[in-house]
Amino acid sequence: MPSIDFESTYGVIIIQDMNIVSVDANYARIYGYQSPEDLLTNSNSFLDLISEDYHVAACQNYRDTMSGQREPRGHTYTNVDRNGREFTVFTIDHLTEWQGRPALQVTVIDLSPAIELQNLVRKQDQMYYDMIMQSAQGIIVHRDFKPLMANPSWVKLQGGKSIEQALQLDSILDLIPQNNTNDIRKHYQAIISGELSGTSTVVENIGFDGIHRFFNIYDNAITWKGQPAVQVVLEDVTQKVMLEKQLVHQANYDEMTDLLNRRAIYEWLREHMSSNNYLVCMLLDIDDFKSINDTYGHMVGDEVICALANITKRNAEKVGGVAGRWGGEEFIIFIPNASLETAHEVSEGVRQQFHQVEFKIDEQLRFNSSVSIGISDSQACEDGVTIDALVNLTDQSLYRAKANGKNCVDGDVVAL
Fold it and tell me: Where's the GGDEF domain (predicted)?
């Protein structure tokens, strides 16, 4: 904490037989007199300068000090000057002589400036405390993630019950998903070291109530009771984050099937093909889908599409692949670094599982559908691997599957 400078005044008075025999100008001004002469003229006894509450103690102190029964020492008194101003002084006694006889010299230090400053600091501290406690923003101070102070808004944002509950935490990292704690620790060290200052970061949080929330945190290094700490201000941005995620999801996923849409598939392919990964591609097309729509209606057709989408996604993810809706009743799968044999196994699994699904129209009418699947891989692209080249080769395999009677898999691999 920086040092605080304040000006104070000290004066000197000499007392003999409880009478004032000498006083300097500073002493006179402290007690509201214009000059030493003004004080001496208007005061018959030293006791006239101090509150009646201290008369007995002052007399006893004078006698004990002059007789040698008490060592000279300091005292603190609250006085009222001749103008009614209340002030506090610190006095230091010294044995001396005046005109050849023992006397008591008292040095008086006016503590009023220090007390006023202390009261101002207390008032400012109280104002700051009230501002923190009444703030609608969540505020916490921690040192190495151990809470030192938290306001009611922070507790409320965390789904807690009381400030005491918050301060009992061994670490606020208990409220952060485990996979994010390393980044949070690095961020803390950067703040404490001064590498970062006044930053804002969006952090996922799991509150006392178990609810996941997202907060934009503003954190700064501060000094708390003489030691480094970090003050964190929280802003709940859960709705904003969820809306952004929803928009990203809507931009990348097909609304009906929740599979990647064609744009997102191209983005995924550009990323994986640029890293020179070996890729297997599979195209899936529901057999005679127009007939299903014409016979049973589009709602049933949508049900068939969603059934194949779920089966496709489940089987693709088992082998580290990704599935998307290529268009209409057509789906696509990509599997990085997988063999054609693995692709054939996945395709056969999808084909068989989908063919076993029974679609119920009513109690008497039920039907099964089927899918044809074509397979190819990036090594088959003779003129260089491109997205369109790989998809075109796979589409040719799909065409052969359709020509071979449908409900089958075609690719450059021995049939199982």
Answer: 277-414
Instruction: State the chain's mean pLDDT as an integer.
Output: 88
Per the structure block, which two tokens stand in for 275? 């890293």
Instruction: For domain 10-115, give the fold.
Output: Beta-Lactamase (3.30.450)
pLDDT digits (tens, 9 = 90+) for 298-351: 999 999 999 999 999 999 999 999 999 999 999 999 999 888 899 999 999 999
Residue 368, CA distances (Å) to 287, 299, 306, 364 in order: 11, 16, 14, 14
Q: CATH assignment of 253-410, given 3.40.30.10, 3.40.630.10, 3.90.180.10, 3.30.70.270?
A: 3.30.70.270
| Element spanning 127, H or E | helix 112-134
Angle between helices 289-296 and 298-318 (to 10 degrees): 140
In a 3-state reduction of DSSP, which class is residue 237? coil
- Residue 173 neighbours by CB under 8 Å, 6+ apart: 145, 181, 184, 185
Which pLDDT tens digit goes with each residue over 251-262?
A: 999 999 999 999
Q: Is residue 341 a contact partner of residue 275, using CB atoms and an 8 Å limit? A: no
CA 179 to chain CA centroid, Å, is 15
Is 116 labeled as catalytic in the residue annotation? Answer: no
Q: Look up the CATH number of domain 136-238.
A: 3.30.450.20
Q: Which is catalytic among the residues 52, 329, 363, 382? A: 329
| Residues 223-235 as b or e (16 or more Cβ within 10 Å = b) | eeeeeebbbbbbb
3-class state of residue 377 by DSSP:
strand
Containing 314, the helix (H) or strand (E) segment is helix 298-318
Quote the CA–CA distance of 231 and 250 in Å, as a whole number. 37
Q: Which residue has the tokens 């005061």?
A: 43
Q: State how beta strands 371-377 and 409-410 pair.
A: parallel
Domain ranges of the chain: 10-115, 136-238, 253-410
Would 10-115 and 136-238 be classified into the same CATH topology? yes
Mean pLDDT of 207-224: 92
